[in-house]
Every structure is written in structure tokens, then in C-alpha cells.
Amino acid sequence: MNNEILTKAKNVIAERRRDAEKIAENSYAKFSQHPEFKKLYNEYVDCMITSAKTGQTSPELEAKKSAYQAWLNQHNCRDVSPVYSCKKCEDNGYINGQMCDCLKKEITKVLIKQSGFQNLEDFDKSDFNKFENKEEMQKLYKIMQDWCNQEKHSKTLIFLSGGTGVGKTHLIKCMANELIKRSKVVNLTTAFALNQDLVSAFSTFDSYKKDQTLQKYLDCEYLFIDDLGSEIKQQLSINLLYAILNERKMRSLSTIITSNLDVKDIRDVYDERIASRIIDKQSSICIQLNGNDLRLKKN
Ligand SMILES: [Zn+2]
Question: What's the pLDDT at 298?
């Protein structure tokens, strides 16, 4: 994982934890001025320690807990234990060394923010009336939504090709959103931004920067590359794009590409290696969204 992105995401989680604990500390400081509360709370904590030592919960512990909670309720006060945003990891970001969903969500937020994408779309709120062939688009959206909800994908590359205005970007924004709801690490970028990023890193001698830049496109569970046209011209970028597609395939990670070029154009603009990676029947789904059928209605 790219260190800078991981650190940013971890900082968000750590801040949540600090906030929850600060509020709890302040509440305790306030309530502990009441001798009655202090007595009830200390009794509860003592009981909790004893029960932790023996590894057994006792009815006494429950009684002590209820007593101090009753005091809080009576005085219309909140709990003095921290209320964490994520109940699963208590705002640690990890559970048994594995990334918690809350941390994955923050990583995705940082990745998408860096790419400049702001608003995502929702499958359930898509308006099909703007399409001339409403039913066909509805069917396609349904297939894509189902794909996003599969536990494992037999095909890990999706190539959506079609002219301007057929709704490719809208569709991938829905897909990214659907995957984020499932707590997947998603990077959504344009081919233009990807190219700029790669060129800027690889035109230096900084191997750390090169490695960290590649990590952004290799470590996410889903990588969306919007609008792959003819902007990636330098051989270096083409080689890097191929390396990214290839490595992701090896790692069984999914890549979704939209383009106004069809597969034949891809072969002409890029090269055979990239074209065959995209149209590999074993691992790819290619969808052509063009012709009058999928044209957006005027107005
Ligand atoms: Zn969590």
C-alpha cells in the first residue's frame, strides 16, 4: 500500500479514536466530582478487574454496571466509556492484524479525492429515461451491479467502450459506489490523471517515489481507469500501463476501463500486448456501448 495514502487514512481513524476518548475523559472528569458517581464507578471498575483476572463474568459485575449506568440516566448524563465510531475495531483500523472495513473506506476516500473525482452515482437512483433504449441500459446496469456484488469474479477486467455521451462514466461511478458500500478498496482515476502521475514519478531518479506511485494502482482491490483514449503516448507510460494491467491480473485484482476507442483502435493506438490483455477471453468482459441504441437522448 502507498505509505502516504495509508498514513492519511490511519490518521483519520486515529483522530476518531482520540475524539471518542477525549469526550469520555471529559465526561468522567465532570461526573467524578459527584462522590456518589465516583463510588459507583470505582466499584464497577474494581469488579471488572476481578472478573478479568478470573476470566469469568459475575452477576455482581452486571449489577455494578447497572448501578452506575442508572446514576448516569438519572442525572441525564452520557456514558463515560468511549463511544467509538467503529464498533468492530474500536477505531483502531485493524482487527487481528487485518485492515478493518472502516480503514479500507478511508483509504478509498483518499485515493478518489487524489484522482479528482467528487460525486459518485447510485445504481438505485439511476434515471433510465434519458436513454433511448431504456430496457437495454437497465439490463446492462443490472449486470454490472450484480458483478459488483459477486464475492469472486471469474473475469477481472471489464472494458466498456463507446462514444461520448453513452453514460460510461456514470456507470463506473455507480459501480465504484456499489463497491465502496461493500467496503472494498477502490481507486477511480482518469487515464489522463494516471498518465500524469506515472510520468511525474518515473521522470525522476527517485525509486521510492516510483514504487509508491505504482502501489496506488496495484494495491487497490478495484481500479477504474476512465476514458482511456490516445493521451498515453510515451512508450514509458504504455509500458507502465501494461505492467499495471498485467500485475493486477496476476494478483486477481479487478480493473475496469472505459474508452471511446474500440478494441481495434486500442491495438492501433497502444500495442498488441495491451490490446490482448484487454480482450483476453479468459479474463475479460468487453462491452460495446455505441450505435443509435445507446445514444443519449437529446435534451
Ligand atoms: Zn473499524
Answer: 36
